[in-house]
Design a protein that fits this description.
Elements: E1 2-6, H1 15-32, H2 36-46, H3 50-58, H4 62-74, H5 82-103, H6 105-126, H7 138-151, E2 156-163, E3 166-173, H8 174-194, H9 204-217
Antiparallel strand pairs: 1-2, 2-3
Helix pairs in contact: 1-5, 3-4, 5-6, 5-7, 6-7, 6-9, 7-8, 7-9, 8-9
Length: 248
Amino acid sequence: MIPLQDSTPRRCPPLMTYALIGINALVFFFEISLPQHLLEQLFYVFGVVPAVVTHAFFGGDPALQAQAVMSIFTCMFLHGGWIHVLGNMWTLWIFGDNVEDVMGPFRFLAFYLLSGICASLIQVYVSPLSQIPIVGASGAIAGVMGAYYVLYPRARIVLLFPIFFIPFFFEVPAVFYLAFWFLEQVFSGTLSLAAPFSSGGVAWWAHVGGFVFGMLTYRLFMVGVVRQCRRYKDEYRSWGMFYPNDRW
């Protein structure tokens, strides 16, 4: 199932969402300009390698600690291919603007980055000896999805479901789609623990950790937020007919 759009209109321009998509796109274009051996080195240096992080902080190797800390941030802006980056950025486009609406751009950025950090650390905890680099924005985006799940449960998500190359379109409540997505990550993550080679290189537990972090902490990034955003006509108060530029 491929989400195409949601029914929740944005009220303010999602400037930080635009910026994050732009940065990820620029980094990806830099990646594809590199020869294969340099790209692999880039992933091992700037992606999160769980075994390196574990050795740096629990093996007492201070020489690796700076690289480990840096990689927890930089891994969020690396992607393993066109499908990886396009899928992540499309999901961020759908869910990020509405979450940014309620947080504001800079709190949204902090929330996004902390979601990604939490996601990476959860994956390191689950697979501490893995030597496969963790790259991608999906952990941070999972945090955005977790916040959306709580903030807009009654929103509608338009989905594309292809059957034998025939596209079918239908709407489902956001709460159902996101709950199904989350349970899918938990199931796949559990399967990957039982059969490590079945995971297909996907950091399932990073998705789970990011989603749970988003659900539990989104309110911390909304405290005291007052945004001057235009209301839609059906949201005007009783005096809206007299003040068409009413804002909240």
